[in-house]
Amino acid sequence: MTDPVNFDADDIPGVENEHDIVWQILSDKLRKDCAQAVDDDYGKKYLPFTAGQLVHRVTFALSYYDQKIGNLFRWATKSVEGDNYTYQLTERNRRHLAHFVSVVTGHPESEISAYIEEINDDGALRAHFATVMQGRQGPMDIGFHPGRRMGWYAIVRALKPKIVVETGVARGHGSLTLAAAILRNRAEGHAGRYVGTDINPEAGMLFCGDYAQAGTILYGDSLESLWAFNEKIDLFINDSDHSASYESEEYDLIESKLAENALILGDNAHATDALLEFSRRTGRNFLFFREDPQGHWYPGAGIGVAFPAFPKTSSGRS
After folding, report:
1. Which of 6, 92, 159, 186 is deepest in the core (most CB within 10 A)?
2. For residue 271, which phi and psi values (nearest 5 degrees)?
3. Which range is least confidently modeled, 26-40, 207-221, 229-243?
4. pLDDT at position 21, please?
5. Entry's Pfam families (predicted)?
6. Which structural domains are found in the chain, ordered by start?
7. What are phi and psi of 250, to 5 degrees?
8. In whole angstroms, what is the distance from residue 176 CA to residue 178 CA?
């Protein structure tokens, strides 16, 4: 690991210089894109507008990314995240998420919205997160920001699944979120258990304390863990190796282990069609929710869901 580079705060580009940096990157790319092969050599490609018009076009398009660029510079200087980015969703995006979960569960939107607010207002969960993070430096920012996982939480609260399986635990954001939902369900008289899998024996730092009572984490290759798992799965969440082939292997392995009305969530559905193809092959419906992060440069991931068709009833799925 290289030593950190020390510099004064005055060395950080000001807002007025952010576009200069971006423009330098864009201009290098434009020069390459404006070259074309001519008789196995490179010659000039003449554009249908002047250099001034080109600058205007790029500047106009860049204006749509002003906020993201500002977020990028703030993240670069203030955040300690390196991956598994965390953020809140915009208010509109949260409303979209509530309607999305309502469709896939068959439960009223008002009920789902209440569950989303429930996790946002969960002081005990946030206190637990702060306690675990106390004294740690990286690779996570302070503050619990579940993002799309609010949808996971609402699905568990609505459907009361007996067995929830998540592949790919990492630091345990998903584990903690799902455990919180399961423990609330138990308090209301509904049994449920969480089973996570991860190849990293140190995964799941957030899945501890009272929340660890919700289930267990199986350490080892997820395909081997799933092959040995012999209980019916009511909710399956793929969030492990993000290659399309590995993702497909997981779906193939759990197909015969799914409960009759099981839901399958894909955390990689924004990047592959593995869950979509699984849905087609097995005769399930498929929907995708796209995140819109608030105050973050990352464009967001989402939730892919494979689910059976159910008529709407006053109490949700029949």
Report:
1. 159
2. -120, -25
3. 26-40
4. 67
5. Methyltransf_24 (PF13578)
6. 9-78 (no CATH), 88-307 (3.40.50.150)
7. -65, -45
8. 6
Q: Where are the alpha helices (DSSP H) in 255-309?
A: 274-282
Q: Which long-range contacts (CB under 8 A, 24 or more apart) does 11-18 make?
A: 12/73, 12/77, 13/73, 15/70, 18/69, 18/70, 18/73
Between 19-23, 25-29, 35-39, 55-59, the lowest mean confidence (pLDDT) is in 35-39
Report yes or no: 16 and 69 within 8 Å, Cβ to Cβ.
no
Higher pLDDT pick, 82 / 128: 128
| Residues paired with residue 196 on neighbouring β-strands, in sequence order | 166, 217
Q: Is 164 helix (H, G, I), strand (E, B) or coil?
A: strand
Least confident of 57-66, 207-216, 269-278: 57-66
Q: Rounded to an integer, what is the distance from CA 307 to the centroid of its chain?
A: 19
From residue 69, alpha-carbon distances to 18, 53, 76 in Å are 8, 23, 11
What is the C-alpha separation between 162 and 194, in angstroms, rounded? 8
Side chain identity at residue 143, one-letter code: G
Least Cα distance to 116 among 158, 144, 82 occurs for 158
Which of 248, 247, 197, 237 has the alpha carbon at shortest distance from 220? Answer: 197
